């Protein structure tokens, strides 16, 4: 086959996981998650793991890179890439087709653009020196050394700013030696903006009704700090603010809902940049299984 990998990407709340599971069932595949928060155990509702989406015709599609790290542990794009290649090779050796599925732009790009990533020591002397600087100074420095910064969440939390600086500096030390590029057929799912907003709001209401606040409470109870929850962002940030009586329930809901809408918009901005950089994405209006199946049949199998 011309393609070794099928990628299903798109913003939050468009039905990527369920579509990928149905396609993996059809084409004898396994799924590799490209989600920066679903790697963590005990973070289920807020990250939207929705593991029932992997159940097709009474069987569970095998998935990788979900529930593999404790929330107290460090996870980053370097580790993601390393573990992706391990999973990719394992799936191929078992005679199955790998599906890369998610919405974390940097993680997707690290594979689709074959980033040659360095291993970064986040407990170095340089890290200790950066911690002494105020967040606004670090923010300015990061913008100077990374003029193509697209993940604006890196600018909100001091811990994220420091990690972004260390990663950027280490990457710039590397000489050009790109990895061998994996040939991936890429399907993108998009929806009308108002439809995505509606999906996000309804999903948030459902998650709050199904125990998301208790999930954040349990993370605080096992010793996760407020700063760490802010680092995880979105649901964990705003629910923890509510639990600490910094905002009331209504403010929490409204601010979180708005933040997720903005996040979905940033995801689409990242995907458009990927296209400008030469990555071809075949877009679907919604998670259309029949259309996706037709595309894979035509381009991945009939095109061999």
Would you mind describing this structure in some detail?
This protein folds into two domains: 5-118 and 174-301, P-loop containing nucleotide triphosphate hydrolases (Rossmann fold); 119-173. 51% of the residues lie in helices and 11% in strands. The protein contains twelve helices and eight strands. It has helices at residues 16-26, 77-93, 105-112, 125-131, 135-145, 158-173, 193-209, 212-221, 226-232, 234-243, 249-276, 289-301, and strands spanning 5-9, 29-34, 55-56, 59-60, 63-64, 97-102, 184-190, 282-285. α4 (125-131) packs antiparallel against α6 and α8 (212-221) packs across α10. The chain is globular. The N and C termini lie close together (5 Å). 30% of the residues are buried.
Topology at a glance:
Blueprint: E1 5-9, H1 16-26, E2 29-34, E3 55-56, E4 59-60, E5 63-64, H2 77-93, E6 97-102, H3 105-112, H4 125-131, H5 135-145, H6 158-173, E7 184-190, H7 193-209, H8 212-221, H9 226-232, H10 234-243, H11 249-276, E8 282-285, H12 289-301
Parallel strand pairs: 1-6, 1-7, 2-5, 2-6, 7-8
Antiparallel strand pairs: 3-4
What sort of overall outline do the alpha carbons produce when their principal axes are compared?
A: globular
- CATH architecture of the largest domain, by name, is 3-Layer(aba) Sandwich
- The sequence of SSEs as H and E is EHEEEEHEHHHHEHHHHHEH
Number of helices: 12
Structurally, the number of domains stands at: 2
Order of strands in the sheet with most strands: 5-2-6-1-7-8
Give the N-terminus to C-terminus distance in angstroms.
Answer: 5 Å
Beta fraction: 5-15%
CATH class value of the largest domain:
Alpha Beta
Low-confidence stretches: none
CATH superfamily of the largest domain: P-loop containing nucleotide triphosphate hydrolases
Structural class: alpha/beta
Q: What is the residue-averaged pLDDT?
A: 90
